[in-house]
Amino acid sequence: MIRIGANPICWSNDDMIEIGGNISLEQCLSEASEIGIEGMELGNKFPKTAEALKSKLAEYGMVFISGWYSTFLLERDAEAEFEAAQEALALRKGAGAEVLIVCECTRTVHGVKEAPLSRRPVMTDAEWDAFLPRMTRFAELVKDYGLQLVYHHHMGTVVQTEPEIDRLMAGTGPAVKLLLDTGHATWGGADPVRLARLYRDRIGHFHAKDVREDVRAKSEASDWSFLDSVLEGVYTQPGDGKVDYVSVFREIPDYSGWVVIEAEQDPEKANPKQYVTMGFANLNRFLKEAGLK
């Protein structure tokens, strides 16, 4: 079964809290519920305890999906990471999540507005050799805890490009699943259709956002930062950019889980309710056309 969820980043940003900072949690949740969203990922305005989080979402007829967790496995081993993750794990499991969304954030630049993407970290072979078994072991510990680890490839981080995604998947064990993000894949130079086909059996979560090619070209030509690119509109809702969603979905006919709208934009330029409504309608149409709904 596929359910369509959303990330509150469509309303207000976590990396740069001024973006949509004036939008209340209640506005976000009421609009998401009215649109037909069934579940939400975590945002900085959400309650900080599992019971309060579940209760708040239930007020609007929604459930908790999961939330981002930053790993630092280039700096510490899996056991140390697991110890550091206890609070995040408890919140997610206690609030009803089934997956833990992780991204390796050692030296990341995606949250630094002044840092151009050309300065993003690239792992050495020695770092890959340390990182891959640590990620596998961390995922195994998380699985024993009762959650499925899904890895979020992301612009500005050590796993951004298609070769890096391939190396991650080839070098980690089955406890590591892929969070396929169509927007980050496309902007990072990967083909989301190829990724879906190649890793269909290991895709454990799905983030749906689209890419405006003209803004991406300007970002790359001028070496913008991730956040400046977002503010200029590099991302948009599914169906409003270049991603061929029907072809992506046709490659994962057995996928069961969440498809999460996670298209961060400046709400002053792109009204969140209007744009998420459009993305929701487009996703439903694409999923039906691909035979997944």
Mean pLDDT: 96
Structural class: alpha/beta
- Share in helix: 40-55%
Count up the helices. Answer: 12
For this structure, the CATH topology is TIM Barrel
The CATH H-level superfamily is Divalent-metal-dependent TIM barrel enzymes
Largest sheet: 7 strands, parallel
Beta-strand proportion: 15-25%
How many domains comprise the coordinates? 1
- Low-confidence regions: none
**CATH architecture call:** Alpha-Beta Barrel
Could you outline the blueprint of secondary structure elements for this entry?
Elements: E1 2-6, H1 25-35, E2 39-40, H2 50-59, E3 63-64, E4 68-71, H3 78-84, H4 86-94, E5 99-104, H5 125-145, E6 148-152, H6 162-171, E7 177-181, H7 182-187, H8 192-198, E8 203-208, E9 210-211, H9 213-222, H10 226-231, E10 235-236, H11 245-250, E11 257-261, H12 272-289
Helix pairs in contact: 1-12, 3-5
Domain Xylose isomerase-like TIM barrel: 30-270
Organism: Hartmannibacter diazotrophicus
Protein name: Inosose dehydratase
Task: Explain how this protein is built.
- The chain is an alpha/beta fold and 293 residues long.
- The chain has a single domain (2-289), classed as TIM Barrel.
- The protein has twelve helices and eleven strands.
- Strands 1-11-8-7-6-5-4 form a seven-stranded parallel β-sheet.
- The radius of gyration is 18 Å and the shape is globular.
What is this entry, summarized?
Its EC number is 4.2.1.44. The chain has helices at residues 25-35, 50-59, 78-84, 86-94, 125-145, 162-171, 182-187, 192-198, 213-222, 226-231, 245-250, 272-289, and strands at residues 2-6, 39-40, 63-64, 68-71, 99-104, 148-152, 177-181, 203-208, 210-211, 235-236, 257-261.
